[in-house]
Input
Amino acid sequence: MTIDTLRFATAGSVDDGKSTLVGRLLHDSKSVLTDQLEAVEHASRNRGQEAPDLALLTDGLRAEREQGITIDVAYRYFATPRRRFILADTPGHVQYTRNMVTGASTAELAVVLVDARNGVVEQTRRHAAVAALLRVPHVVLAVNKMDLVDYAEPVFAKTAEEFTAYAASLGVPEITAIPISALAGDNVVEPSARMDWYGGPTVLEHLETVPVARELTTSQGRFPVQYVIRPQTAEHPDYRGYAGQIASGAFRVGERVTVLPSGRTSTVKAIDVLGRSVDAAWAPQSVTVRLHDGVDISRGDLIAPSTSAPALSRDVTALVCHVADQPLTVGQRVLLKHTTRTVKAIVKDIPSRLTLDDLSQHPAPGQLVANDIGRVVIRTAEPLALDAYAASRRTGSFLLIDPADGTTLAAGMADGVR
Amino acid sequence: MSAVVTVPEGTDHPYALSHLDSLESEAVHIFREVAGEFERPVILFSGGKDSILMLHLALKAFAPAPVPFSLLHVDTGHNFPEVLEYRDRTVAEHGLRLHVASVQEYIDAGKLRERPDGTRNPLQTVPLTEAIQHHRFDAVFGGGRRDEEKARAKERVFSLRDEFSQWDPRRQRPELWQLYNGRHAPGEHVRVFPLSNWTELDVWQYIAREGVELPGIYFAHEREVFARNGMWLTAGDWGGPRDHERTEVRQVRYRTVGDMSCTGAVDSDATTLDAVITEIAASRLTERGATRADDKMSEAAMEDRKREGYF
Output
């Protein structure tokens, strides 16, 4: 059996001890090597701290160490005998929503941290809402600093209950609450002797055993063409292959396919997986597809089985998370990047802005600013083959880009074309 | 309607990709995105294992066509002869185009000054950034991995650099899903890191699986070395040993290949890929902690160099 990989993200407010939790997770799972630990011990001593400050393991930037805060998303890699982990360590500070969206966009699990003394606060609800909107399949609530509330069960139970009710109402499919002390190491990797009332898994145990249900294959094949390979050499005078990564589903030799947006059809002649010819390939393999007919295909086109080709539309409705400092306004001209296709677009309407605390809609806000999540209606210059984000995180997502300076303005999750 | 096929844990589903296949697929996707969106990309190639792996992946990504990128080597003048020989042989074998930016030429022309400690690694930044401007490269592939160092853990796959090649960690673009934004203004360029999600062990396991050839210095061999700052450095014209330093012949190998003045060897009996993998899996030291003097200069040495334009 191959060891699989879990991609997960952490989220928490400032001072909830997120860096300490991540440091503890790495340290206690023996994922920290001697020289890294020596560097942390050395730096902690220089700061006059008695014990090694595990947050220094992850706060990699000068400004982060100076201010004791995490500024930007960092990715970390560790493994136990049971599983490999890719951790998107997202800061809870200022730009919280966009940072968490960044981390959550590829995560299969999110750890939301709260301070046991404060319970569920506004940011906790934001984090739960972001996880729900981005369709992260599993959410862990880590109730931290249990050492500061005398490891009292009622404190944990109240917070867990409140959070679970809220997250479930947002549609988060699975929620696990764990009482921990990142500082003391309770229930992070080792079970806590001080909370014998808790019978569930430690954080690491849960991460190691949570079933990863990936969108391996939707029933619909989607193949965005990235690049056309045409060697034009004596050895391969007529080779014409469409290179790309299968976004969803599977493709088979002999299958009837439709190329969008042109709508032309052909049949798959061959599939090459990086030098090896195969009969079938599936997401997320990077492959080169060859077709029987010499249809005109270029970067940005989408190949799909003719039986389940997506509809085309120039009108996109979507939820977007605004990630830039400059606002997004009605009437603004933008670029929209969907799979390998970038098209001109205009923001026709911003019907509502979402209040993450209770998911209520504020009608017609006129614009979205940094960290806002809102509904938008976009008209594109060319038709797009968009799926609903609910059906595919890969073909239902897009970026809005400022055509003037290239800034990424917003992360979009499409409703899908009806 | 779309049905999501979920795979029960622990079953060998035919649609499951192995860990190395996933990393390979992701890296190839990144190479092709750059080929599709940029005018003048270049691969930084030092003859070290990460750049060799990058080239191997690029060859696979565009086969049977040639790699649509040229290579750029920043030659410190203190490179291992075996590595330069490997570099030239590889370039010839695949019909590639190689640009060389020479630190020695900058020193000879008085444009750079030798550092008192003799380390040339930090001196690479100026020739690198000037070569990027001179050739108007708009995408520069680097073999950096996020597991190497805590500043690199903050690096994006597509990292926008200004006209001075500077990295500003506070102004990075969010990187969402697999949608890489390569837009840049004239004069700016994007550093691209297709191996971001690989660990040192992944690199070695993939090299073993693919049978990629490496320069011999990665495997245990007898070498004349001397001790400096707790590392075994190769004796040579570059500036070692000094009067009080004593050379000896030891059985060593290299975990990273950089400049001779700052890259240390480790004692090792690992003469095969399998033995190297076993050794790395058991090591309690990181690759850089064990063998790179330049990262030991300060707590933020890598961040500071990256801000200035280092890769």
Q: What stands out?
A: The first strand of chain A starts at residue 5 and ends at 12. The CA atoms of residues 240 and 361 of chain A lie 50 Å apart. Helices of chain A lie at 18-28, 34-46, 62-67, 96-104, 122-133, 153-170, 203-209. Chain A touches chain B through 83 residues (CB under 8 Å).
